Amino acid sequence: MKRSTARRLDKTVVLSATLALAGKAYHVPSQPFWDALVVAQPSLMLIFLSVAGIFGVLTPFESWQVRSLADRSVTMRRYILSSFGKLLELSGDIEPPLETGDLALHVWRKRRTLRHPVRGVLKRLGTYRMSTYPNTRSFTPARGVGVVGLCWKEDCETAFDVEPLAQELTTEEEFTRYVEEHKHRWVMNLTWEEFKRVRHRGAVFATPIRNGRNRFVGCVSLDASHGFDVLNRTEVWEEMTALSLYIGREEFECI
Hints:
Layout: H1 3-25, H2 31-40, H3 44-57, H4 60-90, E1 104-111, E2 121-128, H5 146-154, E3 158-161, H6 163-168, H7 172-181, H8 192-198, E4 203-210, E5 216-224, H9 228-231, H10 234-250
Antiparallel strand pairs: 1-2, 1-5, 3-4, 4-5
């Protein structure tokens, strides 16, 4: 249950009890109706008054949801860290070895913005790596932009070996010429400035997060400076898919 839903339930109970008390005070729908009801249930007005006070002050549904959310957040964090640990173990086969903090796991969610009020963009909710360096760079891709944007557009698992492309395209002229000769898809629909900002992540993988109606609502991505061939294997995809399914069931509440 979402916190907003729990809050609405508390308010609905308070409102219902208050309306019942007001109806009794103003004889709505009629005085004989309330007289008969009170005779049948003498403690009914006391119950309404108690319910209004308890739900108005203690908000039990919302309080229960907050406690439940805290427990679920701990469980979610353990699950993500467990998945990240398995991915770190799988990345141990990469040569030359990745530096500490290189491998990173990201969780993205689709959000509407003023610039993209209809389709929205992907916003990063969380990043998991073994150190605070390198710092995560700002990136909020639209549909079809970057590996995560392509994952959104194509609604399927997406991977890209960026390392050889980054070595080949070192200037804006080379980048422009490459785009003219090939399709924008082969540079992940990025502009030169965007490409410069993300090209240091040489191996990138993304898998969709879907809601209960099987609609794309975000994705899980994994990236490293190199090692595409090692990471592009079934064990990695299975771990990322399992994590995306778990996050989708929780509707991002515990990230």
